[in-house]
Amino acid sequence: METTPKIRKLGLAGSLAVYLPASALMFCMTKYLIPFLSNATGQETILFWFIVAGLGIFLPLIITGLFILKSEGFQISKTTWTGRLRFRKITKRDLLWSLAGLVLVGLLSGLVMKALEVVIGEFDHSPAFMSFEPLSDGRYWLLLVWIPYWILNILGEEFLWRGVMLPRQEIAFGKYTWIIHGFGWGLFHVAFGWQLLITLIPLIFIQSYIVQRTKNSWVGVIMHGGLNGPSFIAICFGLI
C-alpha cells in the first residue's frame, strides 16, 4: 500500500535558502534587465515588468515549488493539491476571513500611505519599473500582456509561499509562523523600494496570519489577487 509522504519541517535556514535567492532574482531583474530592455527598445518599463517578472521571476517560483514537492516525494495530484498544498474548497468562514482581511489591509495600507506623505511629503508609490501613465489610445493592448503576468504573479507566489512553504514552516515555528513568513515575503519585495515595502506591511503580515489561521491557500489567492488586480485596473483607467 502506497504511503503518503510526510511534510518536513522548514526552519529559518531552509526558509532563507528560498527567500534570499528569490529576492536576489527580483533585484537583478528589476535593477538591470528591465531598464536595459526598456532603453534598448524604447518601450515602457511596465511592459518589460510584465514579461520579465512573469517568465523570469514568478514562473521560476512555480518551478521551485514543484522541485520542492518532488524532493518531498509528492506527486502532482488532487490529493497533493488539496492536502499538501491546502488548496481546499472555500468555506463561508474562509470567505469571511478573506473579505475582513481585504478591508483591514485596505484601511491600514491607506493610513500608512498618508502617514508616509506627512513624514516625507508626496512620493511615487510605485517603483520606477512599475510606473506608467493611465492607458490611452494605442496602449490598451498592455492589458493583454498584463493578464498572463497577473496569473503567473498570483499563482507563483501563492503556490510557493503559501502552498509549499507555509505548511512546512508551521511545523518549525508554530503559532508564530505568520511573523517569520511575513518577514520572508517582505524580503522578496525589497527591490520595490522602502516606501512601497512599508505600505505592503499590512498585506504581508495580515494575509500570512489569515492563511495560517484558515489553513486554506485559496484565501491567499483571494486576498493577493483581490488587491493586486483591481488596483492595477483602477490605475490603468486613471481612477487612482
UniProtKB/TrEMBL annotation:
InterPro entries membership: Rce1/LyrA-like_dom
Example GO BP: CAAX-box protein maturation
Keyword Transmembrane set for record: yes
The CAAX prenyl protease 2/Lysostaphin resistance protein A-like domain, residue ranges: 141-228
Sorted UniProt keywords: Membrane, Transmembrane, Transmembrane helix
Keyword Membrane applies: yes
Residues that span the membrane, as ranges: 12-34, 46-69, 95-120, 140-161, 182-206, 218-239
UniProt GO molecular function: endopeptidase activity
Protein name: CAAX prenyl protease 2/Lysostaphin resistance protein A-like domain-containing protein
